[in-house]
Amino acid sequence: MEELILATAPCDLSDKAVCAPADVTELFEFREAVFSVLGFPFTRTVLLIFLAALIAIGLLFFGLRKRSLQPGKFQLSIESLMVFVRDEIAVGIIGPSGIKYYPYLMSLLIFILIGNMFKITPFINMPITARMAIPLFLALLTWVIFVVAGFKRNGMSYFLDIVWPPGVPVFLKPLVGLIEFFSTFFVRPFSLAVRLFANLVAGHVMLTLLLTTALVSFVSIGEIGLVKGAFGFAWLVLGLAIFMFELIVIVLQAYIFTLLSAVYIDTSVNVEH
Predict the structure, then answer these.
(1) What is the per-residue pLDDT across 161-217, written as a single tens digit (0 to 9) for each?
(2) What end-to-end distance do the CA atoms of the chain give, in Å?
(3) DSSP string for 55-73
(4) pTM of the predicted model as reported, rounded to 2 decimal places
(5) CB–CB of 6/126 below 8 Å?
(6) How far apart are CA 270 and CA 34, in angstroms?
(7) Which end of the chain is more exposed for a tag (fewer CB within 10 A), N or C?
(8) Average model confidence (pLDDT) for the chain?
(9) Helix axes 221-269, 188-219, angle to 10 degrees
(10) In angstroms, rounded to a whole number, what is the distance separating the alpha carbons of residues 227 and 19?
(11) pLDDT confidence tier of residue 24, bands split at 50, 70 and 90
């Protein structure tokens, strides 16, 4: 069970209140390859990334394969999610031109949502979005899309309006332009990635430490006594409460990442706003 929730370090509750690994990165690093293909190592994290992608493809394929006028619950759920992303995020934020970015935003939301759900999935218990490389890659992908879209829609005026913003007093243009330049081309992808990464890391660490401590307390109650063993129940209750809260975080962070991606695209293609 300790390996199941990724807290593999030994724990002695006789002199500590919470089980914690010596190095918290033990909860996230999986460097040993499960197998290799043509010299490329497939670690546990890599396999989870492919699994998340396959699940996302499977949900869309089977949810839309046999569309009917009276859809079942599964088809209705998938269609409702697609309509929400199309109307409320793609078109709702970007406008009519947002429909061309709808497939990307839909794929982004589902992939992040599944990757986040791995945090509370039995026998996985590890959100792939808690590895900085994943949020950073997705944030850079969004960055490439909104920068390319900005130049394609507005030409060089997209860049010039950023570094020399119109409607700003001349003596403030250099300062505001510098701030806008770094905000648009450097801060946006970094903040987008860190927001998702930090929230998933925090929840994963808390759940791991609390639930591991609860388990070890129950198993070691004969060694540490009833009084200390009773604390395991408190850690379990607190862990379950955080578990329920994490369900909200999982959905909310996927939505926020997708929403901000749409907002950034909107600021590139609709500069007049």
Answers:
(1) 888 888 888 888 889 989 999 998 999 999 999 999 999 888 877 877 777 777 777
(2) 53
(3) HHHHHHHHHHTT--SS--H
(4) 0.83
(5) yes
(6) 47
(7) C
(8) 83
(9) 160
(10) 17
(11) low
